[in-house]
Amino acid sequence: MNFIDFPALHDSFGILTQSYIPWLMIVPGLLIGLAGGALPGISGTMILALMLPVTPYMDFFTAIVFLTSVFTGAGYGGAVPAILVNMPGSTAAVATTFDGFPMARSGKHNEALGLGLAASTIGTLISYLVLFVLINFVAKAVLKLGPVEMAVVAIWGISMIAMLRGGNVERGILAGVFGLLIGTIGISPIGRMRGTFGLPELIDGVAVVPAMIGILATAELFNLARSKYIIDNDAARIVSFPLILKGFRDVFGYWRTLSRGSLIGIFVGAIPGVGASVANLVSYAAARRSDPDPNSYGKGNPNGLVASEAANSSSEGGAMGTLLALGLPGGGGTAVLLAAFAMHNVTGGPRFIADHKDTVYAILISNMVQSLLLIVVGLLFIRMAVVIIKIQVRHLVPTVIVIAMAGSYAITGNLTGPITLAIFSVIGWVFARYDYAPAAAVVGLLLGRFVESQFVFSHQLSGGKLSFILERPIALIMIAIFLISLVYPWINARMRCRKTNEE
């Protein structure tokens, strides 16, 4: 089997050269992503959600190029405060603090910033190169999946988000179920009305984008508003450009860690509902375990920084593969991209790859260009990073809320958008406050109609007979993996508790 469809690849260059507008959106997107990722509490997912309302005014390809540029920039942006002030800009940069901040404390913050940028850009590039080569194989493989398999994968993705984000697993699963139920409000696949309470505004369902912005973005700002500054330690740090470049070059001395972290990121990122938040920790643990001097980790070992940044950035390519191949988000960022697909009446998944492979190749090529441009934009951004991460909350919070409200109004064309945003902001805050995994609720909201339609199609194919599933070996394997993933955290916790008691 040919891994690359060369006729489709040839057609993709027609899409890439059709207009210069998509190329003009890359640098602004990278800058927005870098700035958003560098602000602790404003994750890449949040900044993507805030940028989503501007994309309906673009064509589909331009919108995806812009949003993936923001996604790519945010992948490294979170490393800047993690290295300088031991405060990760997002959960994807948690492991970056382990050795990045000790390097900064020892006077090597310039080298650490350059090293992190190099690992991030190279990890992203590797992930998209791998996806570029394998996308044709993935497209043919996933076409074998029917509605039963797709429904299982969707539910598995929601449960994985609930379980792997830490905290209370049961509450995370409940959050996912809540999102699924909200996603089914409106007209059902068989033409029945549910949960509208007689309101015509809910006939087509809850306004997804305002709800998502409320849960992911505005709700988090409520927590930030309690602080006078985003970062309490506002002491200026000198940034030396030559030393940053030296750190960038030094990454090739850690090529084993870089390669391993990139591959781990691709694999973990491809699992529905996992993403960079888990990938950076898995990669860091693997690097520490394989190092002859594991005790040096946490004290400024550059390998730890490279492992974290390579994995959290390469997970972007893995998550994009899941989005394109299955139509499922690999994490919060690709959940926003999935919403962008829907806003342009495009459905990601097996049929999208099969019917629009030229567009898929064009998206992947533009993503590789983004990763290369991130080198230049990132180096320039680092020089002003210390100023950006000291923005006062009293200026930041009202600005973001106004932008979110205006964007929600623009999407719906009436007050339904702002009202939905306000309601789901409160819901999102409650979820975050009581550990109910807001990301699981968002993915459930996005996939509610999808899951329901797949169950309806499965029922129609089977004629209502449960024995139908015994004729689907792939579905049986998926269900087995799904059940194992559900009980594994409980079994693991019991084993750890028993081991602790024995000691």
Explain this structure.
With 503 residues, the chain is mostly helical. The protein has one domain (21-471). The chain is built from 22 helices and 2 strands. Strands 1-2 form a two-stranded antiparallel sheet. Strand 1 and strand 2 (193-194) form a beta hairpin. 54% of the residues are buried.
What class do helices, strands and sheet pairing give? mainly alpha
Strand order in space, largest sheet = 1-2
**Residue runs with pLDDT of under 50 for 5 or more positions:** none
Number of helices: 22
Distance, first to last CA: 54 Å
Tell me about the largest β-sheet: 2 strands, antiparallel
Gyration radius (Cα, Å) is 22 Å
From the spread of the alpha carbons, the general shape counts as globular
As a percent range, the share of strand residues is under 5%
- Total domains, how many? 1
The total beta strand count reads 2
Helix content: over 70%
Mean pLDDT: 78
Order of helices and strands: HHHHHHHHHHEEHHHHHHHHHHHH
